[in-house]
Amino acid sequence: MNVKINEDNPGNGLLGLVIAVVEVIVDTLKLQAVRRMESGKLTEDEIERLGTALMKLDETLGELKESNNITEAVERIKNQLDDVANSLVAEETEAVEIA
Questions:
Q1: Distance between CA atoms of residues 23 and 2, nearest Å
Q2: Distance (Å, whole) CA 26 – CA 19
Q3: Is 16 exposed, middle or buried (0-12, 13-18, 19+ CB in 10 A)?
Q4: How confident is residue 6, by pLDDT bands cut at 50, 70 and 90?
Q5: How far apart are CA 48 and CA 37, in angstroms?
Q6: How do residues 24-76 score in pLDDT, each as one tens digit?
Q7: Which of 11, 20, 62, 92 might form a disulfide with 77, Cβ 3.0–4.6 angstroms?
Q8: What is the 3-state secondary structure (H, E, C) of 5-39?
């Protein structure tokens, strides 16, 4: 369950890992924002501000990936993180079924 980064350029590998983790957090924030919008807990102003903030985050992350030429590395790391998460969920599910 290892996440592999580029050993030839560890700085970019680390940056790729950090951006991948931030993107996972942003994706989670987006899901939470949608839930809050659908539940009616946000005003129109809050929805607009939230949408603008999330769009700016996406733009900034895209610029960082592009300027550092790590777009593919970030996607690869995110896929590896997904694999790790799926493995952990599968293990936990098996443990619950056994108990």
A1: 19
A2: 10
A3: buried
A4: low
A5: 11
A6: 999 999 999 999 999 998 999 999 999 999 999 999 999 999 999 999 989 99
A7: 20
A8: CCCCCHHHHHHHHHHHHHHHHHHHHHHHHHHHHHH
